[in-house]
Amino acid sequence: MGLCVLALYLIVLASIANAGRLQIQGTHFVKDGKRVFLSGGNQAWIAYGYDFGDNNYEYRKTEFEKYLKLVSDNGGNSIRVWIHIEGVISPHFDNNGYVTGLDQKGTFVAEFKEYLARAQHYNILIFPCLWNGALKQQHQHLDGLIKDTAKLQSYIDKALIPWVKTVRDEPALGGWDIMNEFEGEIIPGTHNSEPCFDTTFLQNSGAGWAGATYSAQELLRFVNWQADAIRRTDPGALVTAGSWNARDNTDRLNTHNLYSDHCLRKAGGKQQGVLNFFSSHSYAWQGKYDEFSPFKHKASDYGFSKPFVIAEFNQVSGAGMDITEQFQWAYDNGYSGAWTWHLHADGSNTDSTANQLRGMKYMKNKNDQSKGGLVAFTI
């Protein structure tokens, strides 16, 4: 009897802990009993690779807050922001490539919690993206984590789990994105008898543009282990990994879903190391969206049993679609969110901040529960 009471007590505690959090029902996000749509943008960075840790946020926070306010004022509800990228500042590595903490000076947690507190003030959900596979610059630390499981475990034990523990109850934490576009570093065209690790379908696709360095198995293991650690530490956490193109997000359309539960578990062996929702990026090439683009399909075409977010897009590479039309397409066609690229508006292939905000403002009053759902929800 005592054990039954304890079990019931733990269930009640878990229910209370998850009350008000962003949750998933089938292929939709829900919050406080209503279907919701994630409308916002990619913060990506203020200073690429130098935003959090070792007191760096102190010099960036005015800019970060500026964009929180702009998104909030224009009706957006969520932001995806890049954190470690390649591990130059965070996490901190010893001379052998093992992680010793989230940063050297021990300021990372306080900095990130301060950012989440400001996001809560502006009613914005934050989705931290841990790593970047789309560009190689100072890559030796990330290379070690992908190739060496002992080094990856040091990151999980010394940085990721402590980080998740300290922020899991923060209202502004929406979810976690393990890695941006690992396809930049995948080796395409590799035949493998295990379908999950066979990348022949990516031959001549453009995958490997940042340096074809890692097998599908290595990259999927990297995602699997971190997703597992997050979900074990915070069972209510929502986890994704942002693919470069929906061509490797689905087993339909004559292609293959590398991000499936089966493939992630096959690669890393961690049962909880799967994604709660899928997310992919979509840009037109030579003025046209390819045959896999979300802007060519309803979300149901991909055959998912989970929500699907268009996690990067813009008008400048939008095949002639206006930013408002892109948002409306996502909202009407079964997607669970849309995030513009990117708020800081530096670098190539980005819309102006003003145009991104125009798209969010267009979405701010929408609440069709038969389509995308409520945009103006309270975190």
What's the gist of this structure?
Helix content is about 30%, strand content about 15%.
Low-confidence stretches: 5-17
Tally of separate helices: 9
Q: Tell me the distance between the termini.
A: 38 Å
Biggest pleated-sheet summary? 8 strands, parallel, barrel
Question: Roughly how many Å is the radius of gyration?
Answer: 20 Å
Spatial order of strands in the largest sheet:
4-5-8-9-10-11-12-13
> What is the percent of helical residues?
25-40%
Please report the total strand number as a whole number.
Answer: 15
Strand share of the residues?
15-25%
**What's the multimeric state?**
single chain
Mean pLDDT over the residues: 95
Order of helices and strands: HEEEEHEEEHEHHEHEHEEHEHEE
Structural class: alpha/beta
Q: Can you tell me the overall shape? A: globular
Report what the structure shows:
- The protein is α/β, with parallel strands linked by helices and 379 residues long.
- It has nine helices and 15 strands.
- Strands 4-5-8-9-10-11-12-13 form an eight-stranded parallel beta barrel, surrounded by five helices. It has a three-stranded antiparallel β-sheet with strand order 1-2-3, with no helix packed on it. Strands 6-7 form a two-stranded antiparallel ribbon.
- β14 (367-368) and β15 form a beta hairpin.
- α8 (323-332) packs parallel to α9.
- The longest helix is centred in the middle third of the chain and has 19 residues, at 149-167.
- The two termini are 38 Å apart.
- Residues 5-17 have low confidence and may be disordered.
